[in-house]
Amino acid sequence: MVIVIQCKDGVGLVAAISSVLANAGFNIVSMREHVDLQESRFFARIVVDKISDPQNIEMAITKVLAPDAVVKVDPLPEKKIVVLVTKEHHCLSDILTRNHFKTLGASVQCVIGNHPDLMSITERFGIPFHLVSHENKSKENYESELMDKILGYMPDYLILAKFMRVLSADFIASFKLKIINIHHSFLPAFTGANPYRQALKRGVKIIGATAHFVTDDLDEGPIITQKTISVNHSFVLADLIKAGRENETAALAKAMQLVFEDRVFVYDNKTVVFE
Amino acid sequence: MVIVIQCKDGVGLVAAISSVLANAGFNIVSMREHVDLQESRFFARIVVDKISDPQNIEMAITKVLAPDAVVKVDPLPEKKIVVLVTKEHHCLSDILTRNHFKTLGASVQCVIGNHPDLMSITERFGIPFHLVSHENKSKENYESELMDKILGYMPDYLILAKFMRVLSADFIASFKLKIINIHHSFLPAFTGANPYRQALKRGVKIIGATAHFVTDDLDEGPIITQKTISVNHSFVLADLIKAGRENETAALAKAMQLVFEDRVFVYDNKTVVFE
Amino acid sequence: MVIVIQCKDGVGLVAAISSVLANAGFNIVSMREHVDLQESRFFARIVVDKISDPQNIEMAITKVLAPDAVVKVDPLPEKKIVVLVTKEHHCLSDILTRNHFKTLGASVQCVIGNHPDLMSITERFGIPFHLVSHENKSKENYESELMDKILGYMPDYLILAKFMRVLSADFIASFKLKIINIHHSFLPAFTGANPYRQALKRGVKIIGATAHFVTDDLDEGPIITQKTISVNHSFVLADLIKAGRENETAALAKAMQLVFEDRVFVYDNKTVVFE
Amino acid sequence: MVIVIQCKDGVGLVAAISSVLANAGFNIVSMREHVDLQESRFFARIVVDKISDPQNIEMAITKVLAPDAVVKVDPLPEKKIVVLVTKEHHCLSDILTRNHFKTLGASVQCVIGNHPDLMSITERFGIPFHLVSHENKSKENYESELMDKILGYMPDYLILAKFMRVLSADFIASFKLKIINIHHSFLPAFTGANPYRQALKRGVKIIGATAHFVTDDLDEGPIITQKTISVNHSFVLADLIKAGRENETAALAKAMQLVFEDRVFVYDNKTVVFE
């Protein structure tokens, strides 16, 4: 069972929390604690040896902490996710394969596309695919339809697996720190469209990808993980894009694993990641 | 101040230890705890916010733990090291440069060589160099002379920076888990002499280096860190050796940093490393 | 169009070959040449700007070289492959996905398993799956049945994607340097069964995987590519295996790309790889 | 002996060049050729088996090519370099050590600083150090003094090893594509001052460094190599800077090796690098 805690820092927090656990007979098999001294902020991830009575433990820990504390006791059931896509398949294929063989750490409830291109691959894996087109609709209507579909599945996280629509602030607010995006660049370089074309023109030797939580500041949400890959003069645009896609797939897979295992905390638009 | 603890596992250890610290008014700014469930072994590294009264804290923590517990409260003075070398300069040069600019995390007391080749580079940095030749001496006499020189400096660690003599079990026992060696291979591949020649013949695409504590089982001590580097068909033997040396230098530098920062625990011929 | 040449080295080979191409009106857009001076062996890979008349070019180049020369002019149609599997899915899933989206650089003709476990995933992608069981058969009969199935597809390469049977020297001789295997270790370390168990016991900090051509010297064929991945004390056996599988998948994918793009030459049980 | 050629592309260039070499009795032991099809630009690097008569070979090759061709036959003597520094030692220390042990591929003629901080380390290695202060001088006078010092050594390349002055367009024009700089960022991210502070605030998980030729467009010259290094939430500013410095040192060392071995071509503000 995993316990994650974020709160204002102070003397004695580890003692208070671990005493609750010891009194309840839990053995701590792995623990990470970090204090951001500048922000006076406390973060902890604790793994205990058995799964038992999560709600009561959560309450008992909350009681010994200040009122601002966020405590989550996760008995580690699989997370439920909904995947949003457009036309590019590379991240989705990887997610479907991991889901199929139970190595994703989450269970894909459905895939929703604003184009039908990825319906076939999704259904090959026995996962429902919903086409929610944005065409000939106001943004409001589109997002309302999208929201309805999503809420029917009650997912823990939304994964934007090369989903090419910009979501409104209202929509994002409904899934605060629950939307994970893969950005086709090493942020903050090449933030705009066509980063690969820009990278080609600049003659860079490394390209990157960034997985981050979505906030209403486009491409500026808290970074979960970044990966880079070497390129060289022999890469034409198509090669850069191919290499970039492999890298995006790997970065998103890593970010999902970290989040689904409750290893990622957000504060002040940054993350604390206990790898 | 850093506190490291190793002992038999049990329920309540984190609570017991952190209560001692809370009562003494310390704030835990970073903590890593790991239990080896198979061995029922507890490891913790705790960083607290101030340096104060290390002996008393050590005693107080020891008192709440079982008698087998090893507790070390390290007020983080620089470690003192003695470096043993033969003829190859690459690791020594790196150590001397880091030492000169105070980024080593340790203070080089002296360099001891069984050949005079590295006297000049050592003295350029104002560090004493002692020539202790092994020639025309019994192993016993050689090691006794070596030991005398070393003990005069009371080092925390001995660094074998491409030191090409095999040390006796007795000598090693005098510095138990205090001797760090860099092995010119990705252990356990190519354990013998001339690993680069073997790697060339086998046509490998990656070569490695292993930094480990020295035990009397040659090249079989607990591994601290390993690094690899890509090679290809265009590498002749001299190129492999050059690439290998860069890699050895990096691996030893990393291992020293981990050890000097009290991040490495040894148990059952393996290490727990809190990076 | 790609032209690959291997022959005994001598003065004037590049001039002779490139003159043939210039006279035929080809522009060389990329060229790699390497001489193994110790073996006096010449290797070249030439990419020209158009696809035209491969047989005649092959003959024309062969004519200007010594009789031992091996010249192959590849108009770069997709290679055809047959994939052999047992029970583990990770490499096969990756191959099927890449095949489905045309990024494999080869076309999967069929998958043959000695167990039925991977039939479902294969058929989801519309690829034929043949069960050729080894049970209750002599090795000779098993391999003869396997051979019949394979020959029906006339593949350019056989991919052993975690195929856990040892093939006979005769079988291998029928597909000389046409069988690619992924070995679950950083060869030559941990060559036996259960490399992950061995790695765990030894406490290594890096694990590797090796993709190689199969020769009748088990696990000793020419290495195409190797990859490594970092691990640490927190990995139990299942974690090591999971990390190892991701690494195996990546290593095999890379090796296939190199081979399918005619970038790999073999000589003296080693490879020359023009990446 | 290394031969490098850059010119407008056309059919028959490899044949023409290699015929000159074959007629002169040279054996090509390694060759890389690349055509930028978009720019119709030809690049080749040829290694031949002996060192002989470079000027005549250079003339003979030039004669068979169009007038725009740039041909350089380099008998591979060590390059001569002058190193410019300010106060930070990490790149300089690495250069001095490599120079001392003859693994730099170049010979350091002198070090010039605009501050005296690095005089001591330089002189420990027996290399002349010149203090050319920029204080109380016009930029023109400062650069003129700098130029005089440099020209006395007739270097092949100037290395800016954390040299913190911006050079004028005129100065740079005097050393066209002969000045190598290390930039403390993964260009084009964080181009300004204090990239580490920006990286900390943004919470990035990777930081980079870029080695590039200096042109009068500040930080926008052709990129030679880039390296990245992983960081995490536990890094305070000093840790980021320390990690960044290790990375800068490695990137500059790699770039120098590539340039000194005549592996780098520049065209259209980008590089072709034959690694």
Report how far the terminal alpha carbons of chain A are from each other: 17 Å
Taking the sheet with the most strands of chain A, its summary is: 7 strands, mixed
> What's the count of strands of chain A?
13
Determine the fraction of residues in helical runs of chain A and give it as a percent range. 25-40%
Cα-based radius of gyration of chain A, to the nearest Å: 20 Å
CATH superfamily label of the largest domain in chain A: Formyl transferase, N-terminal domain
Q: Keyphrases for this structure?
A:
homotetramer; 275 residues; alpha/beta; Alpha-Beta Plaits; Rossmann fold; 2 domains; 4-stranded antiparallel β-sheet; 33% helix; 29% strand; globular
Verbal overview:
The structure is a homotetramer of 275-residue chains. Chain A is an alpha/beta fold and 275 residues long. The first copy, chain A, folds into two domains: 2-73, ACT domain (Alpha-Beta Plaits, 2-Layer Sandwich), CATH 3.30.70; 79-273, Rossmann fold (3-Layer(aba) Sandwich). Chain A has eight helices and 13 strands. The first copy, chain A, has helices at 13-23, 54-64, 90-100, 119-124, 139-151, 169-174, 195-202, 237-260, and strands at residues 2-8, 28-36, 41-48, 70-74, 79-85, 106-113, 129-131, 157-160, 179-183, 206-213, 223-230, 264-267, 270-273. In chain A, the strands form three sheets. Chain A has a seven-stranded mixed beta sheet with strand order 7-6-5-8-9-10-11, sandwiched between helices. In chain A, strands 2-3-1-4 form a four-stranded antiparallel beta sheet, with helices on one face. A two-stranded antiparallel sheet of chain A has the order 12-13. In chain A, helix 1 (13-23) runs antiparallel to helix 2 (54-64) and helix 3 (90-100) runs parallel beside helix 8. Chain A is globular. The model of chain A has no long low-confidence stretch (mean pLDDT 93). At the A-D interface, strand 11 and strand 13 of A face strand 11 and strand 13 of D.
